[in-house]
Sequence to fold (444 residues):
Amino acid sequence: MTGRAEREEEPGESGAPVPGRVGGPVDTPIPTSAPIPTSAPAAGPPPADERLWTDRRWLLYATAAATARLPGSMIPLALVLAGRSVTGSFVSGSVLAGSYAAATALSAPRRGRRLDHGALPGGLVRPLRWGAGLLLLVALGLIVRVPVPVLMVPTVLAAVTMAGVPGGIRSLLPVLWGGRTTTRAFAGDSAVTEVIWVAGPALAALLFARLGPVAPILCGAVFWMGASLLVRWLPGREARGRPKERRSVREPLRAVLPLLFLSLGIGLNIGALDVGLPALLDDRGLAPEGAGVLIAALSLSSAATTLLLTTPVAGRLVAAGSSLRGPLVCLACYGLLLVPLVTLPPYAGVLVIVLVAGCFLGPGISFLLALAPRRVPADRHGETFGLFFSTNALGVAGGTVVTGLVVEHVSVSAGLLLPVVPLVMALGVTVAVLARRRREASRS
Fold:
């Protein structure tokens, strides 16, 4: 594939980073000498060949990002287990977890837009503290055993309060790093997120088993409060203020629409695997909870491959992933490698399939997220990452529901067709991009 997406060169392609510039359709200057609303000194982007994992700024960023995001991966399972423990029914916990996920997905773009207008990372401190306080109210409600509808109020408020924070933190990456290092930084950020997807539910389950239903919620509050202290030390940017004219979400939506389709496909895939893998094991007479090991293997394989992209020796791969071809190829390969699941292989076969497929998932996500900030103005990065978060969350919800219905009313094999959707999405985006280029060529 050739064309505009591939002609968007990485700003530091020659080896020299270009501070204060985000490439793509809209080049918006980033104030590199603006006052920083923290006690950390401002610093320019590192050289393109600098190793991320020896950069103190990167280690601080990774620690702050992990601390802020970990409760988000703990809370859904914690709410399900807490609801089951308090009411004796999984339905109550599912309602709480579902309301938390829905509130997060629906409010993430608007909350991200609000962070785009304010100072960063200073604007992250208040929602992190409010989120921690609201989790304390959830924990108190569990202790005194309030009705589920009452418990849902602080749960939803916590979700809305924190919805923009993951995207707001990620929007600092183009400010902190330039050139190829930006793409490597997104790869490192994706690897951190993959580890969190594994560690969060495991930590929630461990705390629940050892200390009871309130412990995971309290732990989440502690992490968010700790993150509110850590983010203050990150270099950032000054407040931009609200634009005079009212701006529609359609602008960033149109700019990253192909990327959002791919993000939706990833969400559908994850949701389908969450249901399809336990059903596969149950169909073969194995314990369904063994699917947890398979999901962990997929995430760890994905994280390990993504970590390789953060090293200077992966320069050629990073350069290849700086165009739309990178995520398209990776996600197509990922979906294709999951096709054998429809044959209902034995446990060892499933483990091999997810381990190999995961090698393409992490890089695909990294390339996808690295492309996004180059397609929108710098003052809309948080809103754009909020759109990614929403489409992914909606995909997970849709994949879970549809796969459950198909497994229940059709067959397990049919249900395991849905995890292949990243391949379908990648092919669909490829066809759409090629058709658009043909139309543009015919006009000229």
About this structure: The chain has a mean pLDDT of 77. The CA atoms of residues 46 and 177 lie 6 Å apart.
